[in-house]
Amino acid sequence: MAAPRVSVIVPAWRAEETIGRAMRSLLEQTLGDWEAVVAADDDRHYGAILARQGIADPRIRHVRTDRPRTGAAGARNVAWAAAHGGVAAPLDADDAWFPRRLEVLLPIAETRGAAADNVRVVDDATGRPVGTLFPAGEGDRLLDAPAFLATAVPIMTLVRRDAMAGWDADVDLCDDLPFNLRAIDRAGGLLVTAEPLHEYRVRDGSICHSPDSDQRADRGYATCLARLEQDGLGIRDPAIRKSFRVALERKRALNHAYAVWRDGRPGGGTFQEFIADRGSP
Questions:
Q1: Confidence category of residue 279, pLDDT binned at 50, 70, 90
Q2: 121 with 152: CB under 8 angstroms?
Q3: What are 83-131's pLDDT values in tens digits?
Q4: In contact, 267 and 123? CB cutoff 8 Å
Q5: Which of 76-90, 123-137, 256-270 has the highest mean pLDDT?
Q6: Burial, 280: exposed, middle or buried (Cβ in 10 Å; 0-12, 13-18, 19+)?
Q7: Alpha helix (H) ranges present in 3-127?
Q8: CA-CA to 197 of 20 to 30 Å: which in 22, 97, 140, 207?
Q9: Number of helical H runs and strand E runs in the chain
Q10: What are the residue boundaries of the Glycosyltransferase 2-like domain, all occurrences included (predicted)?
Q11: Buried b (16+ CB within 10 A) or exposed e, 248-259
Q12: Is residue 139 packed enough to be buried (19+ CB in 10 Å), middle (13-18) or exposed (0-12)?
């Protein structure tokens, strides 16, 4: 049997309420040559959970981390180790894709080595749009490292197998930063389509929006700084490593500003709401 063109990598931790939406968005893709590998990072049995929701497809496989709560990066690595596709496409279990996402992005990733899209940020509880990664109506753009590091919305990049270096399990909460920078390093830039094809759901109770998310992010930034000195995080271009060091200090300051804003606001607020309120990253 031929390998699928793309492997969709789905880490799952306490995701029983949201994973059905994520997997339905995958089943609705206009491109069907995919496999999905769901990596349970808890004690849930997601095959049974999905089956109870009427979701059963032979393209969906299930694996498990060797212990609970290894983190999203560790779970993604377990899923990728079991994957067969020529391209990795991470999908968080509480997010959703628009139907044409793989149709549009996969050919770009296969050709260039990496591809991503504009992102629509949505409040999960209300369905209210919070914003987008880039303003609507602007054209596709090729991001270099400084342009990527200036963004403040997670970018879920499709990466060709020969450009893949995995996710950093020791980097808490911000493992997408070194992952995407390695993709930029290997692909010579990251093409981001103007059309939003990924819906990033801001959800109370998720790891990224927990009460200690600012502390966890700061630990992740500190780990990245230490790793840059130790092994360069697998980033080969010294100019990208330098840009990352500078950006990490800026992101730590922004993270501190978010904590002050959240703690002084009735009811708190998420980082994405802070960015929308602030007007720019």
A1: low
A2: no
A3: 999 999 999 999 999 999 999 999 999 999 999 999 999 999 899 998 9
A4: no
A5: 76-90
A6: exposed
A7: 19-27, 46-52, 72-81, 101-112
A8: 207
A9: 9, 10
A10: 7-132
A11: beebbebbeebb
A12: exposed
Residue 263 — pLDDT band, cuts 50, 70, 90? confident
Q: Give the whole-angstrom CA distance, residue 207 versus residue 195.
A: 27
Specify the residue for token string 């789905």: 10
Q: Which 8-state DSSP code applies to residue 96?
A: E
- Token code pair at residue 113: 């080595």
DSSP 8: E
Share of the chain above pLDDT 90, in %: 78
Statement: residue 241 has pLDDT above 80: yes
Torsion sign over Cα 86, 147, 10, 170: positive
pLDDT of residue 278: 75
Whose structure tokens read 């927990």?
210
pLDDT of residue 228: 97
pLDDT at 264: 84
Q: Cα torsion at 256, 260, 265, 270 (round to 10°)?
A: 10
Q: Where are the domains of the chain?
A: 1-95, 98-281
Longest dimension (CA), the chain: 57
Mean pLDDT of 2-20: 96
**Listed residue (217, 227, 206, 222) closest to 257, CA to CA:** 217
Phi/psi of residue 248, each to 5°? -65, -40
Question: What's the distance, CA 197 to chain centroid?
Answer: 13
Report the alpha-carbon distance of residue 122 to residue 102 in Å, rounded.
Answer: 20
Token readout for 209 is 């929006």
CA 137/CA 148 separation, integer angstroms = 19
**Dist. CA 82–CA 60, nearest whole Å:** 12
In the numeric block, which tokens belong to residue 14? Answer: 């306490």
